[in-house]
Amino acid sequence: MDTKTVALDIFLDAIKTVQPEIVFDSLVTRENEHLKVVNNTYLLSPDSNLFVISVGKASCGMSQAIEKILGHRIQKGLCITKKGHFLPLNHFKTITSGHPIPDDQSFEAGTEVEKILSDVKKNDFVLVLLSGGASSLMMDCPAGLSKTDILQVYEYLLKSGANIAEMNLIRKALSHLKGGGVSKMIYPATVLTLAISDVYGDDPEVIGSGPTVIQKNDTFALQKVISRYQLTKHLPPTTMKYLKCLVRKTKENQTYPEQIRDYYILANNETALSGAQQSAVKHGIIPHLVGKNMSVTTEKLATMIFTEIKQFSGSLPACLLWGGESVLKVSGNGKGGRNQHVLLSLIIKLKQAEIKKKFTIICAGTDGSDGPTDATGAMVSHDELTKISLDEMTYHQKSFDSYPFFEKYNWLIKTGPTQTNVMDLVLVILEE
Asked: What is the distance of C-alpha 57 from the center of its chain?
């Protein structure tokens, strides 16, 4: 068999299972004036307005899916997505903004959200369609801070080695929209969130920085992140002054007991892993789910995959699977993403150990872009690896410059925007 073609088929089949159209068709329906989500039903009263805010890398796909179900009922719709991820919509205004670094359109999107929310009355219904990337695509700027201050925070955190939960803790602290801000602005109107999760553990407080999840002030956790990543040393003084004021605050959060704030996760990384397993079986390959909800450094993940390849003694052909999102601390100005860096680190280990097994490896994101690149990841097979020198691989790894290396040998995977985002997948096919 052409193992690279099969590996890519399995990867793409996994992505298909988490497409908004697929997950909405099975979990979200309309019956007359009622919206049914999973096993719960919500009345969309004729005398109430329906507002829909869709934000994230999957927002256009999610918006198209909800238009098929509720298009005629949408009073106002706003779709905020990453540049290059646009899809045509009939009932939404669309704003394309910056990711992973926010831009002027990100702040424009935040302003537009606030305008829409200001029109919501207590009997209205607000539907939020949330997916990964929302934290930078929808921005606001607290009083006393500038856009430049906020941008420096995002740029530093992305290279700091902080995980998504830690980054979003800081992002929420510097926003009135995040951390439940959307729900607070429309209280006591009903807010329903339908999410495609891109975070390990599927924590609603972390997905998109939790714009609809009203949260308690966790000043201890905030201080811990400030200290661990030396933010005082790296962030603007104005920003640190703002954060330290938040740390000193001990007042209780206002309660919102009467508001309906239901939250549903329609798809996640495990959904995609299940799709990959089913696809492997279809191709006559035995699937092995080795790790899920992974949240480790890129180097540790590369070591874990290497060890599993080296030690595996099961029946062949086999498909080994990992899911999650690794953390990369970047230095220098190289071009690449965490998936490309994991794969480069892994093949260096395989080359050094002179592993004789036949393998094909994919390390890729599910959203279509790995870091600030146009590739979602990369793929390498054992026979291709024999042609490359260890020195060349090591040079690019140490320079955090994996993209040019994989581009040179035509090993990049470029799917374009996938309209979904459920973290990353690692797929290893071992042959006889």
From this structure: 8
Give Cα 161 to chain centroid, integer Å: 16
**Gap between the Cα atoms of 173 and 335, Å rounded:** 30
Please, what are the domains in the chain? 19-140+175-215+253-267 (3.40.50.10180), 269-431 (3.40.1480.10)
Q: What is the H or E stretch that residue 195 is in?
A: strand 190-196
- The alpha-helical segments, DSSP class H, found in 283-322 are 298-311
Structure tokens at 177: 């929209």
Q: 237-248 vs 219-228: helix axis angle to the nearest 10?
A: 150
- HSE (side-chain half, CA atoms, 13 Å) at 427: 38
In the chain, which stretches have pLDDT less than 50? 251-252
Identity (one letter) of the amino acid at 253? N
> Would you give the distance in Å from CA 75 to the centre of its chain?
28
Structure tokens at 372: 């600030």
Q: What is the pTM of this model?
A: 0.93
Look at strands 28-31 and 34-37 and give their pairing.
antiparallel
Q: What values do phi and psi take at 104, rounded to 5?
A: -60, -35
Give the side-chain half-sphere CA count within 13 A for 158. 19
**Class of residue 69 by CB neighbours under 10 A (exposed 0-12, middle 13-18, buried 19+):** middle
Q: Which two tokens stand for residue 116?
A: 């829409």
Closest CA to 8 of 377, 404, 303, 431: 377
How far is the C-alpha of 136 from the C-alpha of 145, rounded, in Å?
16
When the pLDDT of each residue in the chain is averaged and rounded to a whole number, the result is: 94
Confirm if 373 and 328 have CB atoms less than 8 A apart.
Answer: no
* pLDDT the model gives residue 253: 56
